[in-house]
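User: quick one - fold this with phosphoric acid mono(formamide)ester bound?
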Amino acid sequence: MTLKHYLSVADFDLATHEALIDRAMALRTAHAAGQHEATLKGKTLAMLFEQASTRTRVAFEAGMAQLGGHAIFLSARDTQLGRGELVEDAARVLSEMVDVAMIRTPDQTKIDNFAQAATIPVINAMSSREHPCQVLADMQTYYSHRGPIQGKRVAFIGDGFNMCQSYVIASHVYQFDLAVACPRGFEPNAEWLRRYGDRTTLGHDPEAAVENADLVVTDVWSSMGHEDQQLLRLRRFQGFQVNQRLLDRAKDDVLFMHCLPAHRGEEISEDLLEDPRSVAFEEAGNRLHSQKALLEYLLKDAG
Ligand code: CP
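Assistant: Sure. Structure tokens for the protein plus phosphoric acid mono(formamide)ester:
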């Protein structure tokens, strides 16, 4: 039995990610034809959420159902974790009962400690450090439109938080060049840049970052947990909006992605998601297919 977790984009190499993308594309084609193979029949996923979710929850829950398995939604409010049960104890208990677990919590240490104590595969469903499932769907979306991303130029505009940090790691794993433009004081984690930033250029000028870009990505200016800084951030992020004018500076065939939810009029202009260069809704739909591929892969050899 081989126990695998997906806590970071760095956990899998390029070949593994590309195999997942291939499988996700096949699952998407099958889904469109109404065909669902029960590859996870009898398997159960525990979904622990300390923060709100639409896409991640629905993709995992619908994905398990479509593959013949079952998912259990557990919010911190309704479980003993919310009343102080040790995360390691919860991991050991859930390992006795289910086949795979995913956790969304701002606290990366909790995810790491859960995975350390678990004897089942564990997935990071977003922490303040990373959002690896989102990047997997983003890469599926890029590959399905443009083919391999190696050597391409990606621009991340805005907050150097978990999505940006995931892109720093992804640039190292997938071997693309990443130009980050963020306001001063909102840079990605220095440790992540040191470890994975060999293809990342960090700057503060969105126009310079998108020059010649094949893919432009952004995220909200105030992620979950930053709500109390909303007014400050609205001021500090002025000039970092992705709009048509900014996209016009990228390559003619540039793609635009946003993990959603979006705040129109802030990090993107009002109608950017309707621009033909935007693939944000397809990107959201690919969460379903890529997470199904991930679940199959993690459970394949897990006994
Ligand atoms: N992009 C994303 O993770 O969406 P949710 O917060 O709705 O899961």
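One thing worth noting: The CA atoms of residues 181 and 205 lie 5 Å apart.
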